[in-house]
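Quick start: read one record
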Amino acid sequence: MKDVTIILPYYRAPGMLEIQVKNILQYPDNVKVIVVDDCSPEPAFPILKDISKISLYRIEDDIPWNREGARNLGATEAETDWIIHMDIDHILPPECVEALFSTEVDKKNWYRFKRFRVGLADDTRKKDSIPDEQEYGEIKPHIDSYLCTKKLYWAAGGYNEEYSGCLGGGGPFLKQLAKTAGSSALVFPGDVRLEVYTRSTAKDASVWDLSRDKTEFKKRRKIFGMEKAKNPLRFNWKKL
């Protein structure tokens, strides 16, 4: 792997984005970064306007939980063979980049990373295997943060935007990705980790002003199931 693009959906997390920037500015030039602003009321542009190292796109249609579309847009615009999808509250520490490129990986496979929690457990992290009061420790890999080729991503169809507008749409795509690759995700073999921040270390590490009720997702799943996605990018967007 010669280079890679990290794709970060952004919504109402300016503090977390500033933490991302501090790390991104330490990455070598062969780590590209795309931030997709999902029509956030607190836009990413004021934070990133002078950061040439980051490519910024903004979705102009206000669709709740349009992370599927944001990831599809980032994967469309990425120019490298390899991409990493991460949520905005996950950091790839700069000291891990050398191992990322020096570790041999197979284009036919996809990879999740070891993950460590940074901060006390908040409501999203009560399920972690480490104590709530522990401020740093290893937890399970994030199901929806992974490395794969852009070719494999689109062979699986990308995220199904029929699920945009409600929480829960990542699962159907991950099943398609595993089906297309012929196996579940492997754990990245090199010394690379992701760090997930909690609201005790970044107040906007996770957003709670959108409904997390999965009733609507369950209704849509009965209609669309795990079928391969069609017609990605069903919204207006622009590059900033």
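Residues 170-181 form the longest helix (12 residues).
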